[in-house]
Every structure is written in C-alpha cells, then in structure tokens.
C-alpha cells in the first residue's frame, strides 16, 4: 500500500498539469476504508469511470479530496446512460467499444467545493465523419455522503441550478429558463410556413450586416442521425470571426484552447459552435450578443472531422420531459432567414424577402 506521503506526492505531480486521469485497473488490491482517491485500485466490480479520461484543476482536486473518485463515478454513470452510442451497453463495454474506435469519454471537473462540483462531460464523435460530439454541462451535489449528478436535461440539473453556490445569479437566470424550457412548445417536425417555436431573435454566428458563405444546409449535429439542427459557414467578409447568436452564458466545452463552445440563451435555447481556433475561454461566463468566440477553423478537440476552415453551428433546446436535445431548424428564422430542409442532409436552403440562398451562397446576417 502507498504511504500517505507517496499518494500526496503522486497527486501533486498530476495536479501540476491540471489533469488527473482515471486509469482502469486489472486486479483489485487492499485499500484503506472510506472513499478511494483518484487513481486508487478499484473493487472487483468495475467502476463506472474505469477508462474514462478525467480533467481536474488542482484547486478542484484539493476541494474534493478523497471524494473525487466517487464524483467522477457518478458523472460517468450519467454520461454513459445518456450517450446514444453507449445505449444498451455496460459502462465497461461502452468505454471499451468507444476506445476501440479511438474515442474518449471525458469528465472535466471545473470548479468544486466540499459538497458541490460542476463542469463538462462529453463523448468524442467518430473521427471518420463530419459531426459534433455528445456533450453536457453538469452540476453535482454530495448529500449524505453520496454524489448526485445532474446533466443538462436531467431534473437533477434543474434542481442543482436553483440551489448550487457554484452558479452565479446571471447564469442561474439563463440556465433556469433553459432547464424549464420557457419557450413555445416544440413541434415534432415543423414545416416551412408553420408556426415553429420562436427563437427569440437568434443571429447567425457572426456580426450583423456582414456575410459568410453557407457551405452546408440543415443537417444532423452528428452528421448522420438525429434532428437536422446544424449549419456550416465559411469565408465571407466577417474576417472568419465566430460570434454568439445572442447574449447568454458561455462554456468552452473542450477547455482552454478547444474549438467547441456552448452558449445558453434566455428563453429555452442554446447554440453550439465547433471547429473553431483561437478561441476565447469561457466557463459559465455571461456574454453579450455577438461576443467573440473564436475563428472558423478545423479543430476536432472532441472528435469529428473537418475539411476546410468553417464553423459548425447547432441549435439546441429541451423537450417537455427536460431532455436536452438538438432541434429542427426547418421552419425557424435565424439571422433574418427562414430555414428549410432539403431533400437530403446539407442540401437545405434559406429564404428572405423573396431571395433563396442554398449551399454555396453568401448570406448576410440580419437582426430583423
């Protein structure tokens, strides 16, 4: 058994990099009673976080102490239960299958106190096709010695937002509206001309009255299945700078330097921006409309693929069951343009004032 000093030394060495990685153990070994430290040998039953990549700031590791392994287990359990690519598999089998595809499950602990923690968790996208990873903000609370994690879309998430000291006033306002989905009811598949849920004046992801070129019409955020929620843009006269579609609270999903940002807007919608470079780091930060997020790029910090610099922009909301999901663009007005699906993914177009713009067309971003 490692001495207390040697354990502290090992943790300190990892903390210097700001990264703690949970490594699967082949066999069980005796350990002290109580909660295991990060990296401690697991019991005979596999831990939900075995094989999961864990990012944790030194400050969060200090605040959590010996409970950090239990926290990561709780978050990992929720992530693997929610992931489309892990459905029907045990935690061990899901992580192993994803690893065989070169994909990681990541739990990033950003901030923590003795009984609260929050951060980001995601499952990397396949690197063989264009598309977004699966990712969630989470908040966890330790009650009676047990961590209860809530991912975006869970009722626990909404409950934790209301009470956690790690959520600021402005962020709580936006996140509560998002969790309770204070927007018009979602339609199954709105058609052009139908009264789709109001997007509350969302802009396209660059400055108003400048243009970018639509390179991909409405398509799934994964590039394969799911609601056609995403658009691709490149070039134009906006200097390649990607900006938020509306005010809200922003989080850099991959951490500092990563090309994926999520902004939660008032009124029940959020937007994702992927493949950026030279990004601004945000961690639940309040931002204004058209705040600078980064520049169009080819970053794949959480998987997927990108051919040529562009931004992969996606619209998200919640359904009536508090289930976070990407949502249809078809029938919605974004940036002054009414968007419609095409006959296949990536082929959809937009209309404004009698003008139709399809992939390959420069589109001006209009606020009205």
TrEMBL record:
Keywords from the named record: Signal
Gene3D superfamilies per UniProt: Glucose Permease (Domain IIA)
Alphabetized SUPFAM superfamilies for the sequence: Duplicated hybrid motif (SSF51261)
Location of region: Disordered: 31-53
Signal sequence annotation: 1-28
Compositional bias ranges of the Low complexity kind: 32-51
Domain of life: Bacteria
Name this protein carries in UniProt: Peptidoglycan DD-metalloendopeptidase family protein
């Amino acid at each position: 058994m490692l001495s207390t000093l040697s354990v502290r030394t090992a943790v300190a060495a990892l903390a210097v990099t700001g990264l703690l990685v949970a490594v699967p153990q082949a066999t069980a070994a005796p350990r002290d009673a109580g909660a295991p430290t990060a990296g401690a040998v697991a019991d005979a039953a596999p831990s939900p976080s075995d094989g999961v990549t864990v990012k944790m700031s030194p400050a969060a590791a200090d605040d959590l102490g010996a409970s950090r392994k239990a926290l990561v287990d709780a978050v990992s359990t929720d992530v693997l239960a929610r992931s489309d690519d892990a459905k029907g598999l045990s935690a061990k089998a899901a992580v192993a299958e994803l690893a065989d595809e070169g994909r990681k499950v990541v739990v990033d602990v950003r901030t923590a106190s003795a009984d609260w923690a929050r951060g980001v968790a995601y499952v990397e996208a396949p690197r063989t096709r264009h598309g977004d990873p699966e990712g969630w903000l989470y908040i966890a609370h330790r009650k009676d010695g047990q961590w209860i994690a809530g991912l975006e879309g869970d009722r626990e998430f909404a409950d934790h937002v209301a009470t956690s000291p790690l959520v600021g006033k402005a962020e709580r306002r936006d996140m509560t509206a998002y969790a309770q989905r204070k927007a018009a009811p979602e339609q199954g598949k709105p058609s052009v001309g139908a009264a789709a849920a109001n997007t509350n004046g969302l802009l396209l992801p660059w400055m108003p009255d400048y243009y970018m070129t639509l390179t991909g019409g409405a398509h799934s955020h994964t590039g394969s299945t799911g609601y056609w929620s995403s658009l691709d843009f490149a070039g134009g006269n906006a200097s390649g700078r990607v900006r938020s579609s509306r005010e809200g609270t922003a989080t850099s999903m991959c951490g500092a330097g990563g090309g994926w940002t999520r902004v939660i807007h008032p009124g029940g919608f959020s937007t994702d921006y992927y493949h950026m470079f030279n990004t601004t780091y945000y961690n639940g930060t309040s931002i204004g409309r058209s705040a600078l997020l980064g520049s169009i790029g080819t970053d794949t910090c959480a998987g997927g693929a990108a051919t040529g610099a562009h931004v992969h922009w996606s619209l998200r909301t919640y359904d009536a069951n508090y289930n976070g999901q990407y949502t249809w663009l078809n029938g919605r007005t974004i940036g002054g343009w009414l968007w419609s699906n095409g006959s296949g993914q990536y082929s959809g177009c937009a209309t404004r004032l009698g003008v139709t713009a399809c992939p390959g067309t420069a589109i001006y971003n209009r606020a009205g």
